[in-house]
Amino acid sequence: MKNSIGKKLFIGIAFFALIIVSLSWLLNTKYLEDYYLDKKKDSLFEYAQDIQRDYKGNIDSIDERIANIENSIGGSITIIDENGSEIYSSVFTQGRGGRGRWSVGGISLLTNEGIRRVLNGETTLESYIHPRFNTMSFLLASPLTNGHILIMEAPVSSIKESVEIAKSFHIYIGIISLLIGTILAFIFSKIFTKPIVELNNVAKSMSKLDFSKKYIVKNNDEIDQLGKTINYLSDKLDTSITELNMANKKLKADIEKERQLEKLRKEFISSVSHELKTPIALIQGYSEGLKDSVIEDEEDKNFYCDVIIDEANKMDKLVKDLLNLSQLESGYYQLQKESFNIYDLVKNIIDKFHPILNEKNISLKVNSDNKKLKICGDLSRIEQVLVNFINNAINHVDDRKTIKINIKDHAQKVKVEIINTGEIISGDEIDKIWDSFYKVDKSRAREYGGTGLGLSIVKEILKLHNSSFGVVNVDGGVKFWFEMDKVC
Ligand SMILES: Nc1ncnc2c1ncn2[C@@H]1O[C@H](COP(=O)(O)OP(=O)(O)OP(=O)(O)O)[C@@H](O)[C@H]1O
Ligand SMILES: [Mg+2]
Predict the structure, then answer these.
(1) Ligand 1, from 271, 433, 458: best to mutate by most atoms within 8 Å of Cβ?
(2) Is 366 helix (H, G, I), strand (E, B) or coil?
(3) What is the rounded average pLDDT of the residues 319-336?
């Protein structure tokens, strides 16, 4: 509770209770007695007025009334005539005679000043201390009709006693009130500060960017309304910070993507320039040679021209491949899908390759589970895929000179495999061969006029078809494969 509102509230309420109790005790001790005595005097005056009004010189008519008043004041009433003789006295009827002061009708107890005032027609009230019992009494004397005098005597010792009792009782009441007040102050301060402590906990969590804690609204008082506002603030902050984080992540991803694109662009330009450098240099050199006419021999001239044509063709292939690739990568390329017989397509392609296969003495065998298998795809693009794979197989086949094409029926799909005997592709490179311009053996690629774009084009076409594809090293060679849907 150190320095808390709860502590302040508790001390405040307890202090307040202490002040109230002390004040009440002080007022009691100081003024209770005076208040009682004043009240007593007032009532004596009132009774005297009553008797004055009702007394017409005949005691019998107000006999009962006087007895009642005596009862109320707890004292006695005497009426004397102008000679001092008693007309009425309760003293004798109550059998309390014998006391000197009563024998003179009580009037002798008055001071001279009192006697003078009564005889002057004024009502007078005096107090006197009983000489024997040391008790105090009020003595009221009031003139009545016929020169009769009313004397009322009321002891006040009983009042003093009551006041004393009340005072001591008040100490107990004070202690008990203070005790109960302190306990209530403690409970009240706890009840009052509990929601504030809860609010503080919610705010603390919020400061640590934890927005899961919420204030539980109970009865919609001012603190609960503050709680509602804090809950609202927490929700708002939560969404804003989440959105900000997402935007930040997206921005980072965009920057990273941009950086990657920039890197790819630079790589691409350097690769293209690199691919073009050799043919341009060769064309430049050989055409200058022709122009300088250093060569007289017709055969040499033809050779020069062949080199120039050959290099120009390579550049033409490179440009066509690049255009092809950029079309496929654009994201807008539309496949013309149709259902066609895959075995027939493979056979057609192989027919076109016959001359070169014969020339290189390569055996190419096709195995199909079912010669009637149909697949769904863009015919010319799938032809491009097969041509690329077969071209690569021809370019990389070893002395065993064997190429196999398998067409396999796989339930919903058809799997096509192109296997050639030859060197396997090492683990580091097997993933990279699908990248643009990537060639495992650069000088060998140059021999067969490869630019390293073939497999990138294949990859883009198969991705557009949502096909699975890959390459694995097999016993004594490599196997490229891809899968196609049977139905469109
Ligand atoms: N059947 C294969 N056997 C061994 N290596 C292969 C085979 N097919 C491709 N590769 C390797 O993958 C590389 C990339 O092949 P890709 O078809 O993309 O390019 P390329 O054949 O060299 O040139 P391009 O196809 O553009 O004329 C090749 O350079 C070669 O190193
Ligand atoms: Mg190739």
Answers:
(1) 433
(2) strand
(3) 91
- Whether 9 is in a domain gets the answer yes
pLDDT band per the 50, 70, 90 thresholds, residue 356: very high
CATH code for the domain in which residue 348 is found: 3.30.565.10
Closest CA to 414 of 334, 336, 343: 343
Checking if the pLDDT of 303 tops 80, the result is yes
What does each C-alpha distance from 229 to 192, 221, 232, 337, 344 come to in angstroms?
19, 12, 5, 60, 74
pLDDT of 475? 93
Residues 385-434: tens digit of each pLDDT: 999 999 999 999 999 999 999 999 998 999 999 999 999 999 999 999 99
Residues lining ligand 1, Cβ inside 6 A: 388, 392-393, 396, 420, 422, 425, 433, 438-441, 445, 450-455, 478
Residue 303 lies in a domain: no
The enclosing H or E element of 256 equals helix 222-292
Domain total of the chain? 2
Determine contact, residues 126/44, Cβ cutoff 8 Å: no
Helix (H) or strand (E) holding 160: helix 157-207
Domain of residue 480: give its range: 334-485
Nearest CA to 141 out of 121, 167, 164 is that of: 121
Of 163, 198, 213, the position where a domain reaches its end is 163
Q: With bands split at pLDDT 50, 70 and 90, how would you rate the model's confidence at 61? A: confident
Closest ligand to the CA of 417: 1
Give the model's pLDDT for residue 95. 38
Nearest CA to ligand 1 atom 13: 439
Output the domain CATH number for residue 14: 3.30.450.20
Please identify, among 117, 133, 163, the residue that sits at the C-terminal boundary of a domain: 163
Nearest CA to ligand 1 atom 12: 433
Chain segment 110-120, per-residue pLDDT in tens? 788 888 888 88
Lowest mean pLDDT among 71-75, 252-256, 341-345: 71-75
Q: Is residue 241 part of a domain?
A: no
| DSSP, residue by residue, 57-91 | S-GGGGHHHHHHHHHHHTSEEEEE-TTS-EEEEHH
Structure tokens at 271: 């690769």
Output the CA 69–ligand 1 centroid distance in Å: 136
Task: Tell me, rounded to whole angstroms, the distance of Cα 148 from its chain centroid.
Answer: 94
Ligand sitting nearest the alpha carbon of 451: 1
- As given in the structure block, the two tokens for residue 307 are 């080199």
Question: Does 213 score more than 80 pLDDT?
Answer: yes
Residue 351 lies in a domain: yes
pLDDT band at 215 (very low <50, low <70, confident <90, very high): very high
